[in-house]
Each structure stands twice: as C-alpha cells, then as structure tokens.
Amino acid sequence: MNVGDINTIIQLQALGSLRPTDSNSVTQAPSSANLFQALLNEVLSSVSHPTNNALAANPGLGTLATIINSSIPSSPSIAYNPVPITNQSTTGTAIMNQNTEYDDIIKEASNKYHVPEKLIRSVIQQESGYNSNAISSAGASGLMQLMPKTASSLGVNNIMDPYDNIMGGTKYLKSMMTKYNGNIELTLASYNAGPGNVDKYGGVPPFKETQNYVNKVMTSYYA
Tell me: the pLDDT tens digits for 127-142? Predict the structure, then answer.
C-alpha cells in the first residue's frame, strides 16, 4: 500500500462519516452509504491485488527496487548490464553450454592464446553480460571491458568490435596467466585491478570489488 492509497482511504472514510442535514438527503442516505462502501471496496481491492497496482509492473524487488533505483543518479554513459548469478552450482555449466553469436570468436581466441574457453566465457559474462555495446563509467568498453589505453597496447583496432575485443581481452588474460604462472585467481585479480596492485599486495588486493569479482568469475569457471 502506498501513500496515495492511504490518503484515498482516509478521504473516503471522512466522506463516509458525513451525515445528511435536510429531509431530502435523509431519503438519499442509503444510496450515499452504498456509494461510499463501493468506492472503499474498490480501493481496498486494488491494494489487496498487487497485479492491478502500478508497482507490480516494476521488475525485480518491486517497491524496494523502485526506492533504491530512484535514489541513484542515472548515468547515460553506462551501458553495463551484467546477468546476475542466481545459482552458483549451475552458473558455470550454463555459461559453458551457452550458445552465442560469439562462439566462433571465443574458440579461436582460446586456441590462439591457449586460454581455457570457459574462462573467457566467465570473464565476458561478469564483465558485460555479453553486451558488446557495454561502456562503463570508467571508460572500459565492449564484451571484455577493455580500457582504451590497454586495448591500444594489445593492438586492438576497434575496441567495440566483438572480434577485436575478445581477441584483445584473451591476449591480456594470457599475459597475466604467464606472469602469475597459471594462477587463475591472480590472473583475474590483475584483470580487474591491474597487475600493479596484485604485486603491491602480494595477492588479491583488499578491494571489495576485486574480491567479489574474483570470487564470482572463479565460481562460474570451476562449477
């Protein structure tokens, strides 16, 4: 029940408490009471059945999601739309079995750089949710969310092109795997926070975002 519903009910109850003062209105009192009761029942019915309520059309957490979303400033430059991991025990299998228009590119990148295909898929899933047009507020772009400077150093010509993006991202994964002797955890941490931070802290940096990132990607990769 929202504030508008409460106000409506209060107003109707106030109307219902009014009493006629003349003889003509006395004869009309029953019909007025019936009208009040009908209106009150209609309002209560709409509140009791959320499928008829505008909030029900709101996806996700309904009212709570609306409150949270309305309190966060929108940013037109952000197109990042990851798919949430709802079942850690099956997500990895789902990613591995997921057929996408990028399958051939992923397989080619895997064979060329000797990076597990499932790892590439897991990174893409976490980075962009397979949205090739994703652009983060920091400027990371494409399926594997490459930063412009990094992409340039990897020889990526068009950062938004799925082929160039996947090839560049996989090449970077391979370089980090080589640097950290095949350690997937450190490879992912460096992909997210940069090898400088991994070296500085001697492992996964104590950044909540990076720790969550590594955990989610590894969960799907090893599932």
Answer: 999 999 999 999 999 9
Domain 88-222 coded CATH 3.30.565.10: no
C-alpha closest to that of 65 among 55, 75, 74: 55
Contact criterion met (CB below 8 Å) for 189 and 214: yes
Q: Which amino acid is at 10?
A: I
Coil, strand, or helix at residue 116? coil
Structural tokens at position 106? 């992923």
How many angstroms separate the Cα of 110 from the Cα of each of 39, 170, 171, 197?
Answer: 66, 7, 9, 26
67-81 pLDDT per residue, tens? 323 333 333 322 223
Q: Give the C-alpha separation, 111 to 18, whole Å.
A: 81
Which tokens go with 98?
């997921």
What is the maximum alpha-carbon separation in the chain?
96
Distance separating alpha carbons of residues 50 and 47, to the nearest angstrom: 6
Q: What is the residue extent of each domain of the chain?
A: 3-70, 88-222
Helix H or strand E encompassing 17:
none
Annotated active-site positions, please?
127
